[in-house]
User: Fold these one by one.
Assistant:
Number 1:
Amino acid sequence: DTEVTQTPKHLVMGMTNKKSLKCEQHMGHRAMYWYKQKAKKPPELMFVYSYEKLSINESVPSRFSPECPNSSLLNLHLHALQPEDSALYLCASSQDPLGNSGNTIYFGEGSWLTVV
Amino acid sequence: AQSVTQLGSHVSVSEGALVLLRCNYSSSVPPYLFWYVQYPNQGLQLLLKYTSAATLVKGINGFEAEFKKSETSFHLTKPSAHMSDAAEYFCAVTLPNRDDKIIFGKGTRLHILP
């Protein structure tokens, strides 16, 4: 089973709302990732968690706040977003951090976010 | 720094024809290479990966790719295209013992003509 599950699949939120995206994997993977993908573009890395600790933040605005409650769960808290933040948000995981040899990233189906 | 270049943002082939999607990489050390496919409104799915074992790698759905160090290439092929192959394809690279990032190419949209 190489499944990464993301909820919700679609989310519409106003610029003053607070919402969260959720991600879950039960593969025993120790690294988890958030990516943002705009139309016709490759995924852009936002955050990396290794062994439940934030290891990479790609200078993401503070209106995006990641959280890793345990080794299976990853959340992305959203607050005061802008319309340009509308995108597909992809969660992913790998057995170990990518700095180790030949690990594969497994992606979820994504959460489509629309900010109005 | 490592990078990935995919030649052709759009490729069109007829159903039943050969599929060839090109990927070249730039890296100071032997990389790990991946091909992912993204169908409309879905996440990314791993097609195949190269991790320094056999240079010809077979993946899912009849795809394969060959690692050519002399050409710094990792082109994706499929002998006979099917309508269901229409999707976005991303080549990607990671480096051993480096940071925890995967570098994606810009993607190639594959169109299948009936």
Note: The two ends of chain B are 41 Å apart (CA to CA).
Number 2:
Amino acid sequence: QVHLVQSGTDVNSPGASVKISCKASGYTFTDYFLHWVRQAPGQGLEWMGIINPKSGRTTYAQKFRGRITITSDTSTDTVFMDLSSLTADDTAIFYCARGGLQPVSWGYYFESWGQGTLVTVAS
Amino acid sequence: EIVLTQSPGTLSLSPGERVTLSCRASQSVRRDYVGWYQQKPGQAPRLLIYDASKRATGTPERFSGSGSETEFTLTINGLAPEDFAVYYCQQYGNSLYTFGQGTKLEIK
């Protein structure tokens, strides 16, 4: 059974960075892509980016390029999402979600999701 | 980037009614790679439909998806009380994934 367990609630100041983790279990970590999705309060879902945990190769949504970094640690089956230069607009729940089998980064839906991590940005 | 536009934004309906939600893409979605997700307050989204028309494991038969290229729909035949939620479409036909803005089903 696929499980994605995310790190806990985080509070940050404007201009700071946040790093959220997503630990995977129940499958071979390096076989599947992992995604990050943002959801601001009362708003919709925004796809942020994807990582191939095996190669470390990433693709980011245009909106977040320049301040997002997604990395993976194959020794702990964990993916990390680092978002810098935080503003109040980054107050949101961030989800990780499992994508498809390698090597194709597109063509697969999000069947398994983490529980979400609430990040609050406030001075 | 493919933009997905969902309509309507909000629907007020009664249990037992039939409803059709729309998702329009700004360009053709490769291989009709469109999914539908249900989200309830305080919960992560749940996959209902993938590849435009295939029900995910555990999705009740009252949910059906259809469409191709740029026009996709999610139909719920006979709304159950637990179906009142927000529904999102998603395209995964290229490496820049996108979601629609969502349709909220509320109880009339």
Note: Chain A is about 0% helix and 50% strand.
